[in-house]
C-alpha cells in the first residue's frame, strides 16, 4: 500500500456530484472537465467543515495530508503514540535510546570520540586520515656536535687548590685466598672460550687489546670486576636496585666519531641512610673523564650523593659541605653522560677502575687497569699505588689533595708507558713511609683492618670481640664485604690510641708484619679457624720520623681505595 493519502468529501444529500477534492487545492484537478466529481465551489465553507471531520484513505494525495496531520496533533488532547509507524519516529526513538545509554556509561563511546577527532576541518589544508596525521619527511641534517655534549647536564665544576706533594693512592696488598683462586680459574676458562668484549671496530681502541686482555687475565680481575656482587650489595643496603645500574650499548654508526678510549677517575665520600642507618662508603662526589687521545677533559663535575653525607673526606679530596650544597648533578646524570659517550667497545683506562665503575654503577669489562698490570718490586701479590707508579715511571710526585682530573691523566700516562714497554715494563718500587700529615695519620691510625672473616661472623660479633678482649667499643664497624665465603672490613675507633690498645689486647698470635710492613695478628675462633687483624698505619721509625720533620709527609692512599690484603 502506498503511503500517499488524500480525503474524499461526502456527497451532498440532494444527489448532486460530490465536490472534487483536488479542485479545491492550489494545484487543481489534473482531470479537468472530464473529472467525474463536481468542480463547483459555492459551498466551500461546508466543504471545509466536511474536510475536517470526514476522511478516508486513498492512494493519491500530497500536501494537504501533511497540513491536516499537523493540525490534528496540536488539537488532539491525546497525542498519537510516537513509537508506532514511520521512519521518523523510529529514528527519534533510536536517538533517544542512544543518548540515554551514553549518559549512563562512565566513559564516552570511543567510536564517537574517534569520529570527532578525525573530522576534517574544511578550512585546513593539512590532509588527515583515519589513523594518524602524516608527517612531512624532512631532509636529515647531520649534527657535528657529539651526543654527550647535547645532554644539558647540571655540571658543577670544581678545582683543587694547590697543595703540597704527597701520595695519591694507597698501597694495596692482596694475598689470594682459596675462593679467589677458584674465581680466577673460572675467569681464565671464560677468557679461553668466549671472553669479555674487546674493541674490534676502531683502530684507536684496538691498539689497547693486549693491555685489556692482560688486565682481564689478572688473578684479581674476576673478583674486582664481579659487578653482580656490587649490585647485590647495593640492593641489600637500599642504595639502589639492580635497575639502577647501566651498561653501554653495542658499537654502531652512532658512536663512530666519538672518543674510543677514555680515562676516568672519581672521588668518593661516605653517606648514611637516615632511616636504616646503612652506610655507603663509596658514594660518588666527583667524576672526571678525559679523552685518552687528545687529553681533552670531557667531563669534570661534582656529584650530589643520594644520601646525606656523613664524612666528606675533605682532607683527601678537598670537597667540603659547602661545595656540594647547591650541586644538582647526580649519579644518574653521570650515567646518562657515559651512556651517550661509551659503547661496549669503548676502552676505559685508569687506576683501580672497578672502584670508579662501582661508584657510578656502570657494568663495563673493556678496561685497562694499572692496579692489575703493574707489579711491585718487593712483593708479587701487592697492588701498587698510583703514587708509586707515577714516581717510578714518570718521576712525578702526586699532590696531597686528590684531583680526579690529575689522577686520570697520570694513570693514562703510566699506561701509555706500559704500551711502549710491554713485557719489558719494570717493576714499581713501593714507598713504605708512614702517612705523616696529621689528619691522614689520625684517620688511618684510628682504624684496624680485619680480613679472612668467615660468613658466619657479622659486624656485631666484631664489636663484641673488642669489648671482650680490650674493653673498648669501636665507633663503627663497616659493612663486611664478602668475596665467596670470606670477607673483610674496617673497624673504626675514637682515636689512634684506642685502636692501638684494641690491637694490643687482642688475644691471638704474635704480631707480624704483612708484605707491606704493617703489623697484623691472628685471632682464633671457637672452631679453631682464625681471622686476621691488621693495623692501618705503619710503625714509625727513626728514618720516617726524620722524613716527617723535613717534609710534611706522604699520604698513603686514596680513602676509597684502602689496603685490602686478605
Automatic annotation (TrEMBL):
Keywords, ordered alphabetically: Exonuclease, Hydrolase, Metal-binding, Nuclease, rRNA processing, Zinc, Zinc-finger
Domain C3H1-type: 14-42
Record carries keyword Metal-binding: yes
Listed Polar residues bias regions: 118-131, 554-566
Gene Ontology BP annotations: rRNA processing
Role: Exoribonuclease involved in ribosome biosynthesis. Involved in the processing of ITS1, the internal transcribed spacer localized between the 18S and 5.8S rRNAs.
Name under which the protein is recorded: RNA exonuclease 1
Organism: Fistulifera solaris
Amino acid at each position: 500500500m502506498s503511503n500517499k493519502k488524500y480525503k474524499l468529501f461526502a456527497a451532498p444529500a440532494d444527489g448532486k456530484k460530490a465536490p472534487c477534492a483536488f479542485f479545491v487545492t492550489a494545484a487543481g484537478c489534473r482531470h479537468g472537465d472530464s473529472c467525474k466529481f463536481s468542480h463547483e465551489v459555492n459551498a466551500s465553507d461546508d466543504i471545509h467543515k466536511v474536510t475536517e471531520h470526514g476522511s478516508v484513505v486513498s492512494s493519491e494525495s500530497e500536501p494537504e495530508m501533511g497540513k491536516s496531520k499537523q493540525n490534528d496533533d496540536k488539537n488532539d488532547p491525546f497525542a498519537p503514540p510516537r513509537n508506532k509507524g514511520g521512519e521518523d519516529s523510529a529514528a527519534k526513538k533510536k536517538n533517544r535510546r542512544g543518548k540515554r545509554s551514553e549518559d549512563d556509561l562512565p566513559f564516552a563511546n570511543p567510536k564517537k570520540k574517534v569520529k570527532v577527532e578525525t573530522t576534517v576541518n574544511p578550512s585546513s589544508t593539512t590532509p588527515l586520515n583515519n589513523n594518524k596525521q602524516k608527517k612531512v619527511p624532512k631532509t636529515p641534517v647531520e649534527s657535528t656536535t657529539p651526543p654527550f655534549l647535547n645532554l644539558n647536564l647540571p655540571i658543577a665544576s670544581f678545582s683543587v687548590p694547590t697543595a703540597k706533594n704527597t701520595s695519591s693512592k694507597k698501597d694495596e696488598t692482596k694475598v689470594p685466598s682459596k675462593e679467589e683462586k677458584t674465581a680466577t680459574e673460572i675467569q681464565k676458562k671464560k677468557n679461553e672460550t668466549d671472553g669479555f668484549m674487546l674493541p674490534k671496530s676502531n683502530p684507536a681502541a684496538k691498539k689497547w687489546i693486549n693491555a685489556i686482555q692482560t688486565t682481564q687475565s689478572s688473578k684479581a680481575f674476576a673478583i674486582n670486576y664481579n659487578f653482580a656482587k656490587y649490585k647485590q650489595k647495593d640492593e641489600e643496603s637500599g642504595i639502589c636496585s639492580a635497575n639502577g645500574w647501566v651498561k653501554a650499548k653495542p658499537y654502531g654508526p652512532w658512536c663512530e666519531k666519538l672518543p674510543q678510549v677514555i680515562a676516568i677517575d672519581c672521588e668518593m665520600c661516605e653517606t648514611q641512610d637516615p632511616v636504616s642507618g646503612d652506610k655507603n662508603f663509596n658514594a660518588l662526589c666527583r667524576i672526571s673523564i678525559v679523552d685518552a687521545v687528545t687529553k681533552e677533559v670531557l667531563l669534570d663535575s661534582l656529584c650530589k650523593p643520594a644520601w646525606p653525607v656523613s664524612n666528606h673526606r675533605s682532607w683527601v679530596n678537598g670537597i667540603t659541605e659547602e661545595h656540594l650544597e647547591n650541586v644538582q648533578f647526580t649519579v644518574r646524570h653521570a650515567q646518562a653522560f657515559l651512556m651517550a659517550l661509551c659503547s661496549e667497545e669503548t676502552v676505559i683506562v685508569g687506576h683501580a677502575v672497578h672502584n670508579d665503575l662501582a661508584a657510578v654503577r656502570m657494568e663495563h669489562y673493556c678496561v685497562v687497569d694499572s692496579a692489575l698490570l703493574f707489579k711491585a718490586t718487593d712483593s708479587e701479590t701487592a697492588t701498587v699505588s698510583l703514587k708509586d707508579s707515577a714516581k717510578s715511571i714518570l718521576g712525578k710526585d702526586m699532590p696531597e689533595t686528590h684531583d680526579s682530573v690529575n689522577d686520570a691523566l697520570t694513570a693514562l700516562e703510566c699506561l701509555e708507558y706500559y704500551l711502549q714497554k710491554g713485557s719489558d715494563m719494570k717493576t714499581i718500587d713501593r714507598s713504605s713511609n708512614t702517612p705523616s700529615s696529621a689528619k691522614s695519620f689520625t684517620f688511618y691510625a684510628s682504624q684496624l683492618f680485619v680480613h679472612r672473616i668467615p660468613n658466619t661472623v657479622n659486624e656485631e660479633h666484631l664489636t663484641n670481640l673488642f669489648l671482650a678482649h680490650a674493653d673498648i667499643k669501636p665507633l663503627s664497624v663497616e659493612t663486611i664485604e664478602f668475596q665467596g665465603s670470606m670477607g673483610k672490613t674496617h673497624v673504626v675507633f675514637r682515636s689512634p690510641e684506642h685502636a692501638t690498645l684494641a690491637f694490643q689486647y687482642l688475644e691471638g698470635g704474635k704480631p707480624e708484619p704483612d708484605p707491606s710492613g704493617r703489623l697484623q695478628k691472628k685471632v682464633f675462633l671457637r672452631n679453631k679457624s682464625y681471622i686476621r687483624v691488621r693495623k692501618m698505619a705503619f710503625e714509625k721509625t727513626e728514618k720516617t720520623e726524620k722524613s716527617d720533620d723535613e717534609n710534611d709527609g706522604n699520604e698513603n692512599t686514596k680513602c676509597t681505595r684502602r689496603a685490602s690484603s686478605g
